[in-house]
Structures are given as C-alpha cells and as structure tokens.
Amino acid sequence: MQNYIDYRKIQKPLNFENFTVEIGFGSGDFLIRLAEQNKEEIFFGVEKSWISINKLLKKCKLKKINNIYCTRLDAYWTFQLLFKNKSVKTIIINYPDPWFKKSHIKKRLTKKENLFVYAKKLIDNGEIKIRTDHYPFVEFTLQESEFLKCFSTTVSNLSINEPLTKYEKKWLSIGKNIWEIVLKKEKEPEFIETKKIMEVKELFPVKICKEKLNIDAISHKEFKIEEGLYLKCFSVWKNNGDYAIEVVLSEKDFLQAFFITAKNKGEYFIIDVSKFSEILKTEGIQKALNFLAKLFMEVL
Ligand SMILES: C[S@@+](CC[C@H](N)C(=O)[O-])C[C@H]1O[C@@H](n2cnc3c(N)ncnc32)[C@H](O)[C@@H]1O
Question: pLDDT grade, residue 163 (50/70/90)?
C-alpha cells in the first residue's frame, strides 16, 4: 500500500469517511500506536516536515501498517484541500508549537481560521483533542473557539501512565503539568472569512514575440500580481536560447516553488511551468504566467 499521499497528484477531496487525523505527528509513534490498536480504522498524518514524514513511512513499512496515510502540507491547506466536509471523526494535535510571541499568533494551529476549517470537516459530535504543556495556549485555543460558536469544550489535567511522544516523556520527567483540551462539534461553525485557492484542470502556456523577451526585467525581482498573489523571481539560467527562471509564488499564503521556462521557438517564446516542476495547478500560477508574459511585452 502507498502510505504517502501526494496532494498535487490525487483527485480531491479524498473519499475517506470517519477517519482520524493527527496534525504535526513528529516521530509518528502516537499515530502508529493508534493505527495498530484500531486496525479497521483509517488514520491520516499531516506534517510540514519531510524528516517526520520519512520517519513515519519507514515505521509503516517496517511494521507493515496499511491503515495510515500521510501528506507533507500545512495543516490548514490539508483540511481545506483534501478532506470532505463532515468526514473526519477525530483530530489530534499533540504538543503543538505554542508560538509564544504575539507576532507569531498567525502560525498557531488553533487560530480561529484553522478551527473553522477543522470544524467544517468534522462529523457531527466529532472531536478535536489537543495536548499541551503551555497554559496560555489553552486559553488562546478556548478564546479562538468561541468565535465559531459550534464547540462544547472541556479542559482537564492529564495523568499519563505511558508517555508516547518525545515531548510527553520530557515534560513528565521534569514534573510539568499537561492539559488536554477537547472541542466537540455540536453544530456547524459560524461563518468566518477563510483563505481559499482555486485549482485548475490545465495550465495554458503563453506565447510572446521573440524580440519582446527581456529576461533581466524579472531576474531577482519581486512582484505583486494582485492582492494575495506575490511572485518572487530568483536566478535565470540560459541554455541554447531557452531560459529557466526559479520562482516562488505566494497565493493566499500557499507557497509553491517551481521553475518557469521561456522556450525559444524561432519566431516566438513560449512561457510555461517547467515540466520538471511538481506543482498544484492553480489559478494563481496561470495568472503568474500571464503576468510575466505581459511584463515582457511592456518593458521594451
Ligand atoms: C512540537 S512538535 C510535536 C510533535 C509530536 N506531536 C509530539 O508530541 O512529539 C510540533 C510538530 O508539528 C509540526 N507542525 C507545526 N506546524 C504545522 C503545520 N502548520 N502543519 C503541519 N504540521 C505542523 C512540526 O513539524 C512538528 O513536527
């Protein structure tokens, strides 16, 4: 079985029902234990670290576990893009980075925009279970959940007999308090504005006249294409009259790094995403191709 899900290549949303998701699984031991104890259920691990993904995949292979899937993607986008509404039974978040500073609040896994998307994907009476050693994080999570008016909440002090994660072992060995927050979905969340991106079936290359291409206009430059869509261009490589430009596109904060090519066809150039770049095809990428083509036309 293929445990890894490449979100860029699959049909979305996934057809999973009544499954459990662990966000930020770290070493993966907690998820492995759950999957081993509940062989008839499906588990899904979400991580932004390749190191964690590879650790989990190795363990799954070694233990022949076939009821865990995982993807390397930010939790918000995993829920937004991959899961059906009302399909997730339980969401587990163990010892999330608390992001202590106020300026880092937007990185917290329990900010209201995230809780909104989690809530939409939970089944009725589904639960979010969070463990943390940081009380201000408990308070923050409860405050954010109140905006959505859809959860009943309980907070308890956990006594753990069998520490399962690296952080649990560490906190217990130094006598720290551990809290568990349970947010139970009682109804649909109140609407709040959230970030969305649009996938497209196909990306269309753009043709421009040969004499218009001024590659220096984009090398090591940053562009605002529209509100929420930013393109950063890095180095440009030249090979037999063709060009490849390394870029990062931020589309509603969804980041993609890839190469754009300008292929010399004699009379004209074709601007496209390099066939070696693995991307999620989005409206934003099409806009970036159109934007660059227009820019090349304007600079001369
Ligand atoms: C403090 S560690 C806890 C790891 C594990 N749950 C444990 O208890 O040992 C937090 C983990 O969350 C992951 N993480 C942080 N922000 C994330 C996000 N936005 N989406 C997915 N994973 C995230 C990190 O890569 C890291 O592995």
Answer: low
Question: How far apart (Å, rounded) are the C-alpha atoms in residues 211 and 15?
Answer: 49
pLDDT band at 15 (very low <50, low <70, confident <90, very high): very high
**52 ligand 1 Cβ < 6 A:** yes
* Ligand 1 binding pocket includes 169 (Cβ within 6 Å): no
253 lines ligand 1 (CB under 6 A): no
Q: Domain total for the chain? A: 2
Instruction: Answer with the one of 151, 185, 219 that is the final residue of a domain.
Output: 185
Q: Hey, whose CA ends up nearest to atom 23 of ligand 1?
A: 24
Contact present, 89 and 18 (Cβ < 8 Å) = yes
Candidates 148, 61, 158, 162; CA nearest to 110 is 148
- Residue 19: in which H helix or E strand, if any? strand 19-23
Regarding whether 241 and 170 lie in a shared domain, the answer is: no
Which domain does 258 fall in, by range? 206-298
The CATH code of the domain that includes 224 is 3.10.450
> Is residue 1 situated within a structural domain?
no
pTM of the entire predicted model = 0.94
- Percent of the chain with pLDDT strictly greater than 70: 97
CA distance 186 to 125: 6
| 97 a catalytic residue | yes
Q: Do 29 and 121 have their domain in common?
A: yes
Query: What CATH number should be reported for the domain holding residue 172?
Result: 3.40.50.150
65-86 average pLDDT score = 98
